[in-house]
Design goal:
By secondary structure, the chain is mainly beta. Helix content is 10%, strand content 31%. It has three helices and 15 strands. 29% of the residues are buried. Strands 1, 3, 4, 6, 9, 12, 13 and 15 form an eight-stranded antiparallel beta sheet that branches. It has a five-stranded antiparallel beta sheet with strand order 2-5-14-7-8, with no helix packed on it. A two-stranded antiparallel sheet has the order 10-11. The chain binds magnesium ion. Magnesium ion (MG) binds next to strand 7 and strand 8.
Length: 252
């Protein structure tokens, strides 16, 4: 009975008082009872399997050998890019492509490779593409290996808005990957009540750390704020030789 009284008294303490309590003088049962006060037992996270080198079990795969989940932005018809052995390659001149499905907040994994056929070019002309979150916010894809350009337009930049923390680009022609955590902007009617945010790891290296997205990523001019709901992902045809594989995402 004494123990219960003591526990009851201890449990009524404020956090500061508990911190001041000489816990070592409590019994094992009393300490466990105190500890239980800060245990949270619900909700229980769902189980996701995540084997090494594989997409998590709850991921949505966006690439298969048929390009069935993508369409041309220009025509709305089937995407005309080249698909072979799970590798998608820009077909210059056919235009950007977008996912048929729309997304809001996501964790996105994307692997890309810039070809080594543009070594005579530099800057933005060295195999350029991009992944547009919600069709509006471009995370730049560019061969930025020993290739000088404006830093807010190099690989892993939020295009024309945020310079990556470091340049983690692998040598030209090698596969590399982005892992992106994206929080979409929120709107109340036409009014933006919260901007979007993006965190990007380039080849496992943090390059955008909860970066605020000002608005659309414009080539010319300032970012624009346009109200929208969930929208597709878009991949850019910049007329260059860039390939993609293993694109998956998890809705958040
Ligand atoms: Mg681009």
């Amino acid at each position: 009975m004494m123990n219960y009284l003591l526990i009851g008294a201890a449990l009524s303490f404020t956090t500061a008082a508990i911190a001041a309590t000489d816990i070592s003088k409590l019994t094992e049962a009393e300490r466990h009872a105190l500890a239980a006060k800060t245990e949270v037992w619900a909700p229980v996270p769902p189980v996701v399997t995540a084997a090494e080198g594989q997409a998590p079990s709850d991921a949505i795969q966006l690439l298969d050998n048929t390009l069935s989940q993508w369409q041309s932005v220009n025509t709305g018809a089937k995407a005309q890019w080249t698909m072979a052995d799970g590798v998608l390659t820009v077909k210059p001149g056919t235009g950007d492509i977008r996912s048929k499905a729309s997304f809001c907040d996501v964790q996105l994994h994307l692997e890309w490779r810039a070809g080594n056929d543009r070594m005579d070019k530099e800057g933005q002309l060295r195999n350029n593409s991009g992944i547009f979150l919600q069709e509006m916010y471009e995370i730049q894809i560019l061969d930025s290996y020993q290739n000088k350009t404006y830093p807010n337009g190099q690989a892993a930049a939020v295009y024309k808005q945020s310079i990556p923390l470091v340049n983690a680009t692998r040598p030209t022609g090698e596969w590399q990957h982005y892992d992106i955590i994206y929080t979409a902007p929120r709107f109340d009617g036409e009014k933006r009540v919260s901007p979007g945010y993006v965190t990007v790891l380039h080849n496992g290296v943090l390059v955008q750390n909860h970066t605020e997205i000002s608005g659309t990523t414009e080539w010319i001019g300032q970012p624009q704020v346009k109200a929208h709901g969930c929208l597709p992902l878009k991949l850019q045809d910049h007329g260059d030789n860039v390939s993609f594989r293993n694109i998956w995402l998890r809705k958040l």
